[in-house]
Write a structure and sequence with these properties.
With about 130 residues, the protein is mainly β. The chain is built from no helices and 11 strands. It has strands spanning about 5, 10, 20-25, 35-40, 45-50, 60, 70-75, 80-85, 90-100, 115, 120-125. The strands form 2 sheets. Strands 2, 4, 5, 6, 9, 10 and 11 form a 7-stranded mixed β-sheet that branches. Strands 1-3-8-7 form a 4-stranded antiparallel β-sheet, with no helix packed on it. A hairpin with a 4-residue loop joins strand 7 and strand 8 (about 80-85). The protein is globular. It starts with a strand and ends with a strand.
């Protein structure tokens, strides 16, 4: 039974930082690609960041490049999105997702390519 659960969302002031965690269970995710997506009210789900199975390839949407970092700790079956210099426009529900097709070198930005999703965690950036 594959399960992903996000943690770490909350309210933060502009310029602040949060680290989102995605705890996986049910199987090892060591060969899986991991993505982070977000969805703001009234908007489509947006790609934020992705990391391939080895951690050797990452990708970010332009709006978070240089501010966010995706990482993984396969020993803990946990994945992270470190968010620095947060802006109000980062406000959204953030989701982690896993692509269980093994050992894919590429990272993908299309939500439907990810077969497993967490429940989401709210991030609100406001003064």
């Amino acid at each position: 039974q594959v399960q992903l659960i996000e943690y770490g969302g909350g309210l933060v002031q502009p310029g602040g930082s949060l680290r989102l965690s995605c705890a996986a269970s049910g199987r090892t995710f060591s060969s899986a690609g991991i993505g982070w997506f977000r969805q703001a009210p009234g908007k489509e789900r947006e790609f934020v960041a992705a990391i391939n199975w080895s951690g050797g390839s990452t990708s970010y949407v332009d709006s978070v490049e240089g501010r966010f970092t995706i990482a993984r700790d396969n020993a803990k079956n946990t994945f992270y999105l470190q968010m620095n210099s947060l802006k109000p426009e980062d406000t959204a529900v953030y989701y982690c997702a896993a692509d269980l097709r093994p050992f894919r070198g590429m990272v993908v930005t299309i939500p439907r390519e990810y077969g497993y999703w967490g429940q989401g965690t709210q991030v609100t950036v406001s003064s």
